[in-house]
Specification:
The protein has one domain: Nucleotidyltransferase, domain 5. α1 packs parallel to α2. It has a two-stranded antiparallel sheet with strand order 1-2. Strands 3-4 form a two-stranded parallel sheet. It has five helices and four strands, in the order ββαβαβααα. α2 (54-62) links the parallel β3 and β4. By secondary structure, the chain is an alpha+beta fold.
Length: 139
């Protein structure tokens, strides 16, 4: 699981070899708060059950992190989905890993340097160019 700073492209990652649960979300909040002491933190989440539960809501209050839930079925609005696509293309495509450990190390190494090595390309991939659609009332 990951979070990306939409201005600097720096990532914060929680890694395991099982499932992501609400406990990993809480761990992510702790990491984000530690990394962003004294700053406002906003996190955009989709509507997965483990992200929309009492444990996560309580953790957001504890760590003073504002949660914004994205509309259902809107992966294009989720910048982290764009980052995962980028990683598959640049760090995983056409590579074979003998073990899960090798796979995880490769992925984490790539994530740790994306904001440096791939900065310009990520700026294009993660651009904040969303189009707002307005609907006028008919008279």
């Amino acid at each position: 699981m990951g979070a990306i700073d939409s201005n600097s492209n720096e990532t914060v990652v929680i890694s395991n070899d099982t499932y992501i649960t609400s406990l990993e979300i809480v761990e992510m909040f702790a990491k984000l708060r530690e990394k962003n002491k004294g700053k406002d933190v906003y996190i955009f989440l989709d509507n997965a059950r483990y992200q929309k539960c009492k444990i996560v809501e309580e953790a957001s209050i504890k760590y003073k992190i504002e949660i914004i839930y994205l509309p259902t079925y809107s992966p294009n609005l989720n910048l982290i989905e764009r980052l995962w696509k980028f990683l598959r293309k640049h760090c995983l495509c056409n590579k074979y890993f003998m073990t899960f450990v090798e796979f995880a190390e490769s992925l984490l190494n790539c994530l740790n340097k994306t904001h440096i090595e791939y900065s310009k390309e990520l700026d294009k991939t993660l651009a904040h160019n969303f189009e707002a659609l307005g609907f006028s009332e008919q008279i």
